[in-house]
Amino acid sequence: MDTAELSGSIQERSRWIAIARGTEPADLVLKGGKVVSVFTDEVFPADVAISGGHVVGLGEYNGVEEVDVSGQFVLPGFIDGHCHIESSKLDVDEFARAVLRCGTTAVVVDPHEMANVLGVAGIEYVLERSEGIPLDVFVMIPSCVPASPFETAFGPLEATEFGPLLEHPRVLGIGEMMNYPAVIGAEDAVLEKLALTNWERIDGHAPVVSGRELNAYLVAGPATDHECTTLAEALEKRRLGMWVMIREASMIRNLQDLLPLVRSHGTENTLFVTDDREADTLLHEGHMNAMVRNAVAAGLDVSQAVKLASLNVARCHGLTRVGAVAPGYVADLCVMPDLTEFWPCLVLKRGRVVVEDGRAASFAAPSSQRPVRHTVHLPEASAIDLSLASGRDGMVQAAVVDLVSDQVVTGHGIATMKASEGVIQADPDQNIAKLAVVERHHASGRVGKGLVRGFGLRKGAFASTVAHDAHNVVVVGVDDLDMRQAVIRLGEMGGGLVVVEDGRVLGEMALPIAGLMSDRDANTVDRGIRELEANLCDLGVDVATPFMYLSFLALSVIPALRVTDQGIVDVERFAIIPLETEGA
Hints:
The protein has 584 residues and is of the alpha/beta class.
């Protein structure tokens, strides 16, 4: 800091001190409200004095501008400690508008969806599109692109590409290290990445990893985990010093199962995250405010619930002077009419009103020159073979991906299927459909095929270019022709979601930005998803958020069974396995 900057800084701080003493008026005072303290687990009456984008005093204050918040509650703005903007299917600015109205003023994102499709350019797109908007978007560099050797992405993101990204002021560290077998096995390529941050500021991703293997994972640097699904798993990880990220996504719901961790052991090393929330969830249920609402409804103290969505998130990620309503803290604030619904009537970002009565103030969306469209590259239709070949006719035993309600994990099932003329067909009577993943980055024509049980689909097909993490085309159906038509249509659209029956497209929604995000507003995306879900309901699908379930079926680092463009992956064995089981 040069002399002029130092002088300016001292002058500004002197004014803050004068305001705090009460000898000068504040720029803005929120008058007559009650402050939710994340330090003492209490709610107390106090005016909130603001100057220079910071809180400078709590007590009785006067301001140049005063806002009467009598009978209302002042909370810190919420911070999402781990999420993927791409899962909302909204572009960065539209995502910001959706979550700001929920009281979220900062997010820590891992743009590994964009990185799998576009490499470094995808990460740069997120950084550029979030520059200067009234939502702080902090970035963790995707650590696993592709997530494993069993998925085909646009290309690998190597350690040599991390350096320039780590210099960006909003890049905090390295994102979720999903390739836990490589970490535990001390593979050089993985350790080279983790060493770049001196083994710190690394998000973890270690579902069901336990015992000595968990110890081995932790000494490599990962410090957080958002994949805990049971209290026992969360407790073991917190005992070893991990930050347990309690997740509540659109599909994956872990809040109720993990809240006992907080009730029994307090709020230390624990925080709330949303991970993957679709636009309809953001609009109708909310964002971090929904997690706080549900936690309080389940009996958690209000201040503790707020702390898990603010101060603890900041501390986990090393963000200073944010996450609390206190002197010297950034004035990212929410004003709530009640402490039950947690829908803010006022949201301030650095002391400026950005949401009032549920409406976000307008702001310009920064531009980006990154080429993010036209990313779906498929072979000729005749080269896309979706038939499920068998080495015999008659009844065969086959591996099946079993959906697990409200969870990203799947089961490794076995089913007796009928093979005719060397081909296995779907069996709606057993609730079993065909599942295929078509490589879409290099038009290789490679297709992985398997079976999935649990959607309820009785006819037709549905497909998406949102398929974690490599985001190839994933399609589920009971008819090969409908499945092929769905894949072809996604290629024509440049990516998105589609439902097909009898060769006819029943519904579709384009996602032209990397095949992951819409260029439309949140309400339009919400309507589109609801219409597609209604189409699927007509075809027999009886699970909530079916496209979210579909999007995780190719994720080769979550137990137990997945299908990628390379085949059927047994995640627990970390190996490609045949469709037909031994001894069939």
